[in-house]
Amino acid sequence: MSVAEGRSGREQLLEAALEYFAANGVHNESLRSLAANIGTSHRMLNYHFGSREGLLAAVVDAVEQRQRLAYAALMDSVGTGLPRTATRAFWNEVVEEALAYGPLVFELAAHAMQGERHAKGLRDTLVTPWIDILAESLVQAGRDPAIAPVQARLALGVVNGLIFDLLLTGDRSGADAAHGLFMDLIGLDDD
Predict the structure, then answer these.
(1) pLDDT for 65-109, tens place per residue?
(2) What percent of the chain lies above the pLDDT cut of 70?
């Protein structure tokens, strides 16, 4: 898609970097090396993102934003309940995204855990916003507001753990089965 079709040069570069990092990992990729691999100049990457750290933060934000938009679309489609079919559909969507971008997100999350400068912002975006979103959904579905944040943290931990398992083992059917059991345990109603 060209800039004339609605995407800015920054958006195009971000998408190219996202696809490259998803396929190759971040490692110690310099802006010069990345630029050569995605068909641009390091000066353009600096112009749009300020630094390697700024680019990496934008990459993770883009992946997270996709997942938040998908979740918002799910909630719009189901209203105030959390039906099993919709939750399973969202799980499948998250898994497909994770198969493409999960290793990158986990790599950058590890950078955040290690206190690397480019990933510090991830400490604020990879967990807390999801707990807030999930807790709100649980309350709307009739769960107790006092424990909804804890339930949300549990759900997020289970999903992240199952994605981690899937990315390491490649066992999609095992991860799907475990997710199904989790839905049973938390009492998600059938549609």
Answers:
(1) 888 887 788 777 766 566 777 788 889 988 988 898 888 889 888
(2) 92
At a CB cut-off of 8 Å and minimum separation 6, what does 45 contact?
A: 13, 17, 31, 34, 35, 55
* Burial label, 90 (beta-carbon count in 10 A; 0-12, 13-18, 19+): buried
**Burial class (CB within 10 angstroms; exposed 0-12, middle 13-18, buried 19+) of 135:** buried
Q: Which residue has the tokens 């839905």?
A: 183
Q: What angle do CA 149, 155, 160 make, to 5 degrees?
A: 125
pLDDT for the residue 3? 36
Task: Domain ranges for the chain, please list them.
Answer: 1-50, 57-185
pTM higher than 0.85, yes or no?
no
Amino acid at 3: V
* Fold of domain 1-50: Arc Repressor Mutant, subunit A (1.10.10)
Q: Judge residue 186's burial from the number of C-beta atoms within 10 Å of its C-beta, 0-12 exposed, 13-18 middle, 19 or more buried.
A: middle
Helix axes 52-78, 42-49, angle to 10 degrees: 60
